Amino acid sequence: MPEKSIVHIIDDDESVRQSLEFLLKSAKLDVQAHNTASSFLEALPHLNPACVITDVRMPGLSGIDLLKRLKTVASSIPVIVITGHGDVPLAVEAMKQGAVDFLEKPFDDELLLKTVRSALNRMQKEAKRETERAEILDRLGTLSNRERQVLEGLVAGDANKIIAFNLAISPRTVEIYRANVMSKMAAASLSDLVRKALVAGILDNSPT
Description:
By secondary structure, the chain is α/β, with parallel strands linked by helices. It contains nine helices and five strands, in the order βαβαβαβαβααααα.
């Protein structure tokens, strides 16, 4: 059974950690605090983070260093960076490294909660998208070579007779393959089939 998704706070300042922890728990969010980015990264393989809030300036690994490390493990965890007065250049660098947002100290409680909820929604949507993509790829794997060719013709916008001509088969045979493709891909309509092809990335190399 997977662990609950948790908002992780990373800050070397104990008073900041406690303040953020109190605020987030008051908003009914599950929270875990860390005093260094290193301790968070060490625990990461055993965690199920929903969101990370980190100070940009910390002893050892900084918030920027943390973002770079998360990139190397292809992590999609949304990271919110907290910056001090005059640290806007660092905040911009953090955004370049993948942070979803930054907040300047002293931050407004309501703004922080709004930012965290936005990041959590983003994480949920990303997880849902990845689950859908995995299912679509599994379904693609069930198609025969000919069915895959017909699928590619359909999502390219070709009519049945054009697909038939290109594949040197009859339009009636294309209709049969088309029905098989729609069934195997669990597509409710042609537009649904095209959407699934886009999600799976099989249109990425199509001419524009």
